[in-house]
Design brief:
disordered C terminus, single chain, ATP binding, six-stranded mixed sheet, 10 strands, alpha/beta, 10% strand
């Protein structure tokens, strides 16, 4: 019967443990997903995945084993102590004094284990971060021959873990030594005082025998409580960071519901916008930026690296909020619009698109809230000139995306297809053609021209580019330097002026805008291969 009870008890605690860990991970993951993007600027991927994995599992010991054993032994020890006092209150008080000393040592040991557990989790997270970073950048590691350096970084954190484990082992040895010393002290005191009590006629030999047995039971119950309490303290130490992350308030963007406009024309205005990243409050990134993008207009933003081009896009996507100034969409402040509704109307392609480990169809469909058919996916892929290479894959659109399967240009075209499929009112291309070859870039620019000429779906397009050929597809160009707008102009006017001087457009534009991503000893335009450039028509888009 007892075996059956133990089996049922173990099963119940196991189920409770499973439910607890599942809910903890769901709650923690949900809390992390709803944080501001600035939160992820300061937290590492390895640390967060460690909290979701090992730390949540560590907490399961609280219910799965430790709490169960602590409660059971507390009840057993309390019953034994009451019986000891009934047998002989002087001997019972002496045993209680010894158990109190053991409990004090137990609390010190548990407190140390809590601190050690926090250090262990931090070092484990750092070691995981090093390993994850190394594996994700393995080609770079291999090319530069830094295998030994990466191994050294990993060994550094393993060494710290070993030091912590060594100190934990020493503390555990001290705890065991204290227990054995006090345990044998209890037996000696029981025999000495018990023998004296027998001679005095206060107790009988039978009562002394019962007393010794129950005192051992009390001491062992105290030891089990201490041992499981130390494990419990380790779990608490490991879970402190988990609970801190779970208690984080979600971003206001997900809490407050903003305006949902009936339609968007695509008029974008940056009004005296200044910005610095929360992680670098003393470094201004944008300073008093004023830019206007009219409906159905293609605007190219150029400038040196670090001039604030991509930051403008981040603000427009509401990944961050401006420090000063505001962004207006058709005259409405962007911060007053519903963020989820707003992002559904934007198509974005970044410089380094990241695809999810799912089939190509799912990657193209990703983020679309409306009902999407396979024909729609293939249409978007054709528009991005990705259909041919996708069809040539063994499983076509059902091919699972892998880092080694697709080239950078192919990933870029899939990302462009994803943006086109959303049928956005505003299209943002942040170096979207940087990974494409000349032919693919020409095709994508053809898509841009088709988007502009489609009278039924007018779109505003913002292009961030480093290639002159990409800039030529724009109506206007915005030049940024040091977080400020230094010049805004119409390309058609500049190319019209070139007719008079007969200067090469590549040289004139690069000189005029100081548009050089690298500090070179010789002029940048002399290093660029002379790819075909359209003749100096007033409308450089070819329309």
């Amino acid at each position: 019967m007892q075996v059956k009870i133990f089996g049922v008890r173990g099963c119940c605690f196991g189920i409770a443990n499973m439910i607890l860990v599942k809910r903890m991970r769901e709650t923690l993951y949900s809390s992390l997903l709803l944080q501001d993007i600035s939160f992820f600027d300061t937290e590492t991927v390895g640390d967060l995945t460690s909290r979701l994995g090992a730390d949540c599992q560590q907490v399961s010991r609280v219910i799965g084993n430790d709490l169960n054993m602590i409660l059971r032994n507390l009840l057993q020890g309390t019953g034994a102590l009451i019986y000891l006092i009934i047998l002989s209150w002087p001997l019972g008080l002496c045993t209680l004094l010894i158990c109190s000393t053991l409990a004090a040592v137990m609390l010190l040991y548990g407190s140390y284990q809590k601190k050690a557990a926090k250090l262990t989790q931090e070092c484990t997270a750092s070691a995981n971060e090093v390993a994850q970073e190394t594996f994700s950048l393995m080609r770079t590691v291999r090319v530069y021959g830094t295998e030994e350096d990466e191994l050294g970084r990993y060994k550094h954190w393993l060494g710290k873990l070993a030091d912590i484990s060594l100190r934990q082992s020493a503390a555990y040895g001290f705890w065991n030594l204290s227990f054995n010393t006090l345990y044998h002290s209890t037996q000696v005191i029981a025999v000495l005082l018990g023998g004296t009590s027998i001679l005095a006629g206060h107790i009988t030999a039978e009562q002394l025998t019962k007393f010794i047995l129950y005192s051992e039971w009390l001491i062992y119950s105290t030891w089990w409580v201490g041992d499981n309490l130390s494990s419990l303290m380790q779990s608490v130490g490991a879970s402190e960071k988990v609970f801190q992350l779970m208690d984080l308030l979600p971003s206001n963007q997900f809490v407050s519901k903003g305006l949902k406009l009936h339609r968007i024309l695509g008029h974008i205005e940056f009004v005296n916008v200044s910005f610095h990243y929360p992680s670098r409050p003393t470094v201004p990134v944008l300073r008093h930026v004023n830019i206007s993008v009219h409906p159905s207009e293609v605007v190219a933003i150029v400038g040196l690296s670090g001039s604030g081009k991509s930051t403008l896009v981040n603000l427009l996507l509401r990944l961050y909020e401006p420090t000063n100034g505001q962004i207006l969409i058709d005259g409405f402040p962007l911060k007053e619009l519903d963020v989820m509704w707003w992002r559904e109307r934007i198509g974005f392609v970044g410089q380094e698109p990241r695809l999810f480990r799912m089939d190509i169809s799912s990657n193209i469909r990703y983020g679309c809230t409306r009902d999407i058919k396979q024909e729609d996916i293939e249409w978007a892929a054709k528009q991005a000139y990705a259909h041919d290479f996708i069809s040539s894959l063994p499983n076509g659109y059902q091919t699972l995306v892998d880092d080694d399967l697709l080239s950078g240009g192919q990933k870029q075209r899939i990302a462009i297809a994803r943006a086109i499929l959303r049928d956005p009112t505003i299209l943002i291309l942040d170096e979207a053609t940087s990974a494409l070859d000349a032919e693919s870039e020409h095709n994508v620019k053809g898509v841009l021209r088709a988007v502009r000429s489609d009278l039924s779906t007018k779109r505003s397009v913002i292009v961030i580019a480093h290639r002159l050929s990409t800039i030529q597809a724009a109506d206007r160009i915005v030049v940024m330097d040091g977080g400020q707008v230094v010049e805004v102009g119409f390309l058609s006017i500049y190319f019209e002026s070139l007719k008079q001087s007969r200067a090469h457009p590549r040289e004139t534009l690069l000189k005029r805008y100081h548009y050089c991503p690298l500090r070179l000893k010789k002029p940048y335009w002399e290093l660029i291969p002379h790819s075909p450039i359209p003749k100096h028509e007033t409308d450089i888009t070819g329309q």
